[in-house]
C-alpha cells in the first residue's frame, strides 16, 4: 500500500508538471504557486468498486481534479485498466456517487470515460454538440453537484470540432441553427486574433474552441446561482479542458 501510494503521488507530480508546461492559458493565480502534493489511495483510483457516499464526501475538488489528470495520463499512455465491469454494474444499481461531471461535445472520437480512465459510476457525462450550455444542461450540472455530490465540473472542448467550424461558417440548417447560435457570440465578440478567420484555419478554429469553453464556464457561473455559490465556498471547482485529437491529452485550465 505504501509503495503504491508513493508511486501514485510521484505520478501525479509528473502529470502536474507536464500539464503546467503545456498549459498556455494558465490563470495568473496559478503562476509561481507551489505544486500541491496530494496523496491518493491507489486502491481507490484503480478499484473495480464504485464509489460510496462516504468515499465521495471525503474527496476534495483538488483531489478529484488530480484523479482526472492522472486518469488522462493513463489514457495517453495506453495504460487503461481492465475493470470488473459486471461487478460494477451490480454495485452501481444501488446508487451512484460520481466524483465529477464532464460537459463534452457530441463528437464520437472522444470516449469520455476512457479519456479520464474512469468506469461505471465514476462520472456524470453531459454531451451536446459544441459543449454549449442551456437550461437543461445547467439543470443536469446542478443535479450532478448539488444533489449527487460531484466535486468538479469539466467543460471539455476539442480540436477539429465540427460544431465550432459550422458556427464559424454560420451554417443554417433545421434545429442546428439554434444550437450554433449558442457559439456565435464567441465569434461575434471578435477577440484579438491575427490570421485568417475561417474554418479552414486550424489556429482560428482552436482559438474559437477555447473561447467557447470559456463562454460555457462564464454561462454556468452567471446562470446558475447554485453552482456559483458552491464554487465560491470551495465545494466544487469549475475548470476547462481541451482534448487534443492526435494524442488524447486533455489540457486543463482554470478560469478565474
Ligand atoms: Zn465537437
Commentary on this structure:
- By secondary structure, this protein is an alpha/beta fold.
- A five-stranded mixed β-sheet has the order 2-1-3-4-5, sandwiched between helices.
- It contains twelve helices and five strands.
- It folds into two domains: 1-39, no CATH class; 42-254, Beta-carbonic Anhydrase, Chain A.
- Helix 6 links the parallel strand 1 (100-104) and strand 2.
- The chain has helices at residues 2-22, 42-46, 53-58, 61-76, 85-92, 112-115, 135-147, 162-168, 176-180, 184-188, 202-223, 225-232; strands spanning 100-104, 123-127, 152-158, 237-243, 250-254.
- The structure holds zinc ion.
User: Helical amount among residues, as a percent range?
Assistant: 40-55%
- Beta strand %: 5-15%
In spatial order, strands of the major sheet run 2-1-3-4-5
The CATH homologous superfamily of the largest domain corresponds to Carbonic anhydrase
The helix/strand class is: alpha/beta
How many strand units? 5
Mean pLDDT across all amino acids: 83
Question: What about the largest sheet?
Answer: 5 strands, mixed
User: How far is the first residue's CA from the last residue's CA?
Assistant: 37 Å
The ordered H/E elements are HHHHHEHEHEHHHHHEE
CATH-scheme architecture of the largest domain: 3-Layer(aba) Sandwich
Poorly predicted segments: 1-46
Rg is 18 Å
- Name the assembly state: single chain
CATH topology of the largest domain: Beta-carbonic Anhydrase, Chain A
CATH class of the largest domain: Alpha Beta
What binds here, in terms of ligands, is: zinc ion
Compute the number of helices. Answer: 12
The shape, in one word, is globular
Amino acid at each position: 500500500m505504501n509503495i503504491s501510494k508513493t508511486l501514485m503521488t510521484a505520478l501525479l507530480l509528473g502529470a502536474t508538471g507536464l500539464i503546467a508546461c503545456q498549459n498556455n492559458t494558465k490563470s495568473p493565480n496559478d503562476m509561481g504557486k507551489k505544486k500541491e502534493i496530494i496523496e491518493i489511495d491507489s486502491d481507490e483510483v484503480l478499484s473495480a468498486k464504485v464509489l460510496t457516499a462516504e468515499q465521495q464526501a471525503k474527496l476534495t475538488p483538488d483531489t478529484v481534479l488530480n484523479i482526472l489528470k492522472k486518469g488522462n495520463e493513463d489514457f495517453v499512455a495506453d495504460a487503461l485498466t481492465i475493470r470488473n465491469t459486471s461487478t460494477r454494474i451490480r454495485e452501481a444499481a444501488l446508487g451512484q456517487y460520481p466524483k465529477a461531471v464532464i460537459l463534452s461535445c457530441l463528437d464520437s472520437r472522444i470516449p469520455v470515460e476512457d479519456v479520464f480512465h474512469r468506469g461505471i459510476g465514476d462520472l456524470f457525462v453531459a454531451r451536446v454538440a459544441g459543449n454549449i450550455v442551456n437550461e437543461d444542461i445547467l439543470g443536469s450540472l446542478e443535479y450532478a453537484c448539488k444533489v449527487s455530490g460531484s466535486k468538479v465540473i469539466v467543460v471539455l472542448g476539442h480540436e477539429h470540432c465540427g460544431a465550432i467550424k459550422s458556427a464559424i461558417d454560420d451554417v443554417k440548417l433545421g434545429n442546428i441553427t439554434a444550437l450554433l447560435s449558442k457559439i456565435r457570440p464567441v465569434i461575434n465578440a471578435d477577440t484579438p486574433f491575427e490570421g485568417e478567420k475561417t474554418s479552414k484555419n486550424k489556429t482560428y478554429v482552436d482559438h474559437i474552441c477555447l473561447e467557447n469553453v470559456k463562454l460555457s464556464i462564464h454561462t454556468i457561473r452567471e446562470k446558475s446561482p447554485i453552482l456559483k455559490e458552491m464554487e465560491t465556498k470551495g465545494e466544487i471547482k469549475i475548470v476547462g479542458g481541451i482534448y487534443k485529437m492526435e494524442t488524447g491529452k486533455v489540457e486543463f485550465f482554470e478560469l478565474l
